[in-house]
Amino acid sequence: xxxxxxxxxxxxxxxxxxxxxxxxxxxxxxxxxxxxxxxxxxxxxxxxxxxxxxxxxxxxxxxxxxxxxxxxxxxxxxxxxxxxxxxxxxxxxxxxxxxxxxxxxxxxxxxxxxxxxxxxxxxxxxxxxxxxxxxxxxxxxxxxxxxxxxxxxxxxxxxxxxxxxxxxxxxxxxxxxxxxxxxxxxxxxxxxxxxxxxx
Length: 199
Description:
By secondary structure, the chain is mostly beta strands. It has helices at residues 4-11, 34-37, 82-94; strands spanning 20-25, 38-40, 46-55, 58-68, 71-76, 113-120, 126-139, 154-168, 185-190, 193-198.
């Protein structure tokens, strides 16, 4: 029967939700120290729909289209308001605050940005990175309250996601690889002996 020591050897300490890194590149403004000021984020999800095709009292499940959910992060407000200002400027170029016009014409889709969220291990090495093409849709309000003590301003930002790609470590476990893991395996037969290999 497996023991707690066996479990510890397989569990390897687990993955910590507080070890992550977020970066964001917009077409209009630069963001400041998101690695430090991004308080919360999520690993993005996606769903493949299903199409049910009835046949003689049964239903055949056929894969449908993939849908990407919105991606949300929470940012601690910096004292110069640089990150919120950058987001507001990005949204302002997409759709002006004062009138119904945009800085982008119908042939220009450069309003999309690139966001990434990386899961880190306990040695601060990247385990996995998700890179998304995103469009900001909402910058949440910041509540002001003269009666609140011991508080820090923060705000949530919601992005619509067109797609994401996934990078993992190089095959040797380093964090500076190509983002592609390669596994090669097979069998070698020498006379009556057959040896399997995988590297």
